[in-house]
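assembly run, all chains below
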Amino acid sequence: MPALLEVDNLHTQFDTSAGTVRAVDGIAYTVDEGETVGIVGESGCGKSVGALSILRLIPDPPGRIASGSIRFDGQDLLALSDADIRAVRGGQIAMVFQEPMTSLNPVLTIGQQLCEGMQLHLKIGADAAQARAVELLDMVGISEAARRLQQYPHHLSGGMRQRVMIALALSCKPKLIIADEPTTALDVTIQAQILELMRDLTQRFGVALIIITHNLGVVARYAQRVNVMYAGKIVESGTATDIYHRPVHPYTLGLLRSIPRMDRPRGERLIPINGQPPDLTQEITGCAYRPRCGFATDQCARETPKLETVATGHATACFEKAQLERLLKVAS
Amino acid sequence: MTVVAEAMVLPGAALPAAAPLIEVNDLKMHFTIAAGIVRKRAATVKAVDGVSFTIARGETLGLVGESGCGKTTTGRCILRLENPTSGSILFEGQNLCGMDRGSLNEKRQRMQVIFQDPFSSLNPRMKVGTIIGEPMKVHGIHPNQKEREARVAELLSVCGLNPKFMDRYPHEMSGGQRQRVGIARALALKPEFIVCDEAVSALDVSIQAQVINLLEDLRDQFNLSYLFISHDLSVVRHLCHRVAVMYLGRLVEIADADELFNNPLHPYTQALLDAVPIPDPELEKGRTHKAMKGEIPSPINPPGGCVFHPRCPLAVDSCQKEVPQLRQMTAGHWVACPRV
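ok done. output:
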């Protein structure tokens, strides 16, 4: 069975006065039906741009999808007409954004925002949409759903707004939800509530989920497969267990060693990644992680490593993977 | 382990022989909200409502809680950036509340702050050298410009930046570098006490670790005391000797870091710890997550009795009436809940 979503060799660029920013520089991954895939990386690594490209939400100009293909459920999203991609957006693929404050329209009631999409995508009448809206709010744990439909976003707290966003995302029975840092703006107890809710609902309805986050803990808890991004490229991909227990890219290893962890003895010194991410307006020859990498060789300066499989479902873009694997074996 | 020994005498107990550097007693900070044309008092926000703790010399006290719990206001009160409604803040035994401007300025040299946002806490029109040199200029330390520049260069290199950065503007630097400038500025007056208000929260993971290590090194090098305000429990656990948990303007639990994280007693602390995801999928599979119900109530109209009772799994009727006081469970471990 083909995957639900296939992103292949995607390049998304932005033209700025400082030069062309290669925000996404040739990424490829798949998402199966009902699967939760995590995309992790630090700010500016291209994780959000990669996701926005799927829905063709990149503002053009200055941005453009320079090359690549995105196949979703048998259609080539990049070849669709504007009208057809609009049917996909919010319909078959829904999005949950980071900022529940700014992603809802402040001058429309919750009910208007929920019903608009449903009437459009599900082709149902106003009354049916209204009834479904009440059902949806109930499902995401908002009390007095019927009354809430009349309220405006500013009446709701941040957690409640994010629940409305999830109701919105589910409203048109999508096959895929893209959640871009869905809980970063929320407090930790509310974050837990929202993530549990998203997991329950996506499982219940068999919806695939792409969760984009910088929080390695969130990915470990909720994703089955993980893509680690650095400087516009996927540098490692595998199951959550692969990534966390057998990382074979120095960047992944560096990330894992640089976070303080609740499950480790207290007071262990953190091992930071030295230096900073590269400037993406500059042409990068060789491996983008090389200046910060403890394993770098001459080859890393000359050639760009490609994502290569090291075990079933586990791939890394590193020339020194054999050395890393050896070290990890010794360590365990 | 003098740190731990001193920490055990607290709060409300008699002063130990070696007085703590900072002692906060029953601190209250109430803000009034005005409304209408005549700006009539419409409501009171009890941002901080009776908080007491001490910080020993060289100690790092973590202050954790969710947004709006009053942790930042507590830090601002200690620095006297706010004028507390009541209570006292003793800095080496001298009360900062009600202190005249001259004496306060003298004390302020010895306490500094590192803010969360490295983008808005540095003046974009000033060069880095001027930013770091300004506190020295204000307090008349190194009035000679040459000397001041030498000190700025020294501070930059202490914070892991090239002294050449002196001539740069903040916008020419990355977030991590800017946060280092903020730290260098805080160190300029050789303070003894620094309030770190979400000092690493805005930074990316790989940069965050660099700054955490820097804060640790500086603490050891200059015997600094920190009030480390953060919502990130893993960072607090890593960096702090003792941890205080706040909820809606009150302390609900305070204990040594190991004790608090290994043996959390207050149901709110337990829920907070439970909500933190661990970056290990195998461990995560074995954890049971019971997300806490409800949301933080508005501090304008907080629940009566224990402010946590509407969300608390242990609550009984009496929790709605009686305000729980901190009581000591084991040495140095205080919790404000009669049900544990």
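Chain B touches chain A through 44 residues (CB under 8 Å).

The radius of gyration of chain B is 21 Å.

not gonna interpret more than that til we talk
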